[in-house]
Amino acid sequence: MIGPGDAGKWTPERGDEEFGGRFVRIFANEVQEGDIFLLRSGMSKIKAIGLVAGAYSYLDQFDDVNGWDLQHGRRVRWLGIDHEWPDQVFGANPPRLSRSLNPRVIEFAYGFLKSEPSDWRQRSLQELPPPEPPLEEPPGELADLVAEAKDLLPLYWNREEFPNLPSESELVAHFVVPCFRALGWQNRLLGVEWHGIDLVVFERLPRLQENVRFVVEVKRLGAGIEGAREQAKGYVASLGSPKDIIVTDGIRYRLYSAGDEFHAKCYANLWNMKRAAVKFFDYVRRSSP
User: Cβ atoms within 10 A of the Cβ of 199, count?
Assistant: First the structure.
């Protein structure tokens, strides 16, 4: 999968500027079935090797993959591996898609395909998930905040209007605190920068460790909120007892349950609301004043 996908399906008549550069065109038009894909990590490591197994498709069900619009897709048979060269073989700033011309990388890739195991190259492809139904109307108490997100998010990514993305503190003020307020949490229960934590939601007063309900870690837009879970777990450990974690960039919210070894429990995206978001709002909503 590759993005940006919200601009619609790629066709030869459409220009690169509609897709933020040349990468979507290369992915849709130049990649061929049987080409080798490498999933790189850093400048010297690869974590998976894949063989392209299908033509370009535009897939609506991938309009929100952890907040990214990745509707441009190809079927690929992947095999997870762990290979690292002793020095750098890739560039420092990875593009969305690029061709490697490094002889060592090319030799490794073709050599790997000639080695065992080989059964993965003919493995049946899994069925694609169906598109997730949209949420036609957000919960009434969140309607204004959702409307604000739809107005502001395009501006945030407009470099003429916003030369720099908003800070984490701005996102807390404009979205995160209003979201919890709308879901029934009074200001006295919302500790901003409490003991160095971006936001702590208290079940009740006094503001003591044992009364913490949620630990909220806030990241900047585009930073990838899922990577913040480990940092938030460190904060939870300092509290001395399990607490649910919420990671957010103000627009996306993912909750990790302390009662389920901090596995992801529910998710909501104010910009792209799906029916499953109701589970997040119901879980976080305060049941009593």
Answer: 20
Residue range 88-129, pLDDT digits in tens: 999 998 889 999 999 999 999 999 999 998 999 999 999 999
How many Cα atoms occupy the beta-carbon half-sphere of 230 within 13 Å?
2
Backbone angles phi, psi at 186, to 5 degrees: -75, 160
Closest CA to 225 of 246, 198, 206, 201: 246
Instruction: Determine the Cα–Cα distance for residues 103 and 116; give it in Å rounded to an integer.
Output: 22
Between strands 244-248 and 212-218, the pairing is parallel
Mean pLDDT of 273-288: 93
Within 83-165, where are the H helices? 103-113, 143-156
Residue 247 backbone dihedrals phi, psi, to 5 degrees: -110, 140
Instruction: For residue 110, give Cα distances in angstroms to 49, 50, 104.
Output: 11, 11, 10
Q: How far is CA 260 from CA 25, 31, 268, in A?
A: 42, 41, 19
Domain chopping of the chain, boundaries? 16-122, 140-284
**CA 69 to centroid of chain Cα atoms:** 10
175 Cβ contact list (under 8 Å, min separation 6): 145, 148, 149, 248, 250, 251, 270
SS3 239: helix
Give dist(CA 150, CA 156) in Å, integer. Answer: 11
In 9-71, the DSSP E strands lie at 36-41, 45-52, 57-58
pLDDT given at position 289: 62
Q: Is-contact 201 217, C-beta < 8 A?
A: no
Which CATH architecture describes the domain 140-284?
Alpha-Beta Complex (3.90)
